[in-house]
# Entry
Amino acid sequence: MVARWVALQALWVFVGVLVYFTVRGLTEGSVTQADANARRVIALERRLGLDLESELQGVATGSDALSTLANWVYIWGHWPVIVATMIWLALRHRDSFLRLRDAMLISGAVGMVIFALFPVTPPRLLDLGLADTVSERSHAYRVLQPRAFTNQYAAMPSLHTGWDLLVGIAIVTAAGSLWLRVVGFVLPTLMILAVVVTANHYLLDAVAGVALVLVADRLAVLLARRRTRRPAARASPEPAASAVADPRRGSPGGSS
# Structure
């Protein structure tokens, strides 16, 4: 029974991911529009004081260890961690698994709409003097995420950041050990730094990704509550028939 449930959930997740990447690849916007939108994002960052991409990458690329760490977090801290976490949750913590699954599906659906309507060129593809550290130093990412399923102009919002935050929330919620909770807290923070340092996202992309998944997580919690109410409603007994006698017929003991 457990194996059947896990297999069914794995199928749902696989279909959702396949649809997400397929539609994301088909909705790739024009380069001109994506460049213009990217410059709008940069202008807004400057007004907010969030244009820190060059400074952060400068710090990381000045150290081989930091640059390698950022690449590794970006590559191996996303899909491998998501898959491992979902397997663990499906086997040990079903409620947390369903919450994570629903939040990812909701945020992924909204993300696809945004990618189609507001394509954004990532920093690595815009003339900003930033290096594509992942592609320059590693080929592993293209194995994990083939170009055929990749929209190069889906920078806003950053689901790399958002989905890692959802995974972190799931780990903190379900974990029984301190070290796992620490992983859950640290993972999203490292990913925010990694997406910016590797020039794959603007800092504002990460902020938007966080905001999107927090709303999606709230909706997932509401869906979970609805799921728990349904069995309770079905299990509750029918209200007993009223024992109050019809006044026109007198009391149960007979007429006076």
DSSP finds eleven helices and no strands in the chain. Residues 240-245, 249-256 have pLDDT under 50 and may be disordered. The two ends are 63 Å apart (CA to CA). Residues 203-235 form the longest helix (33 residues).
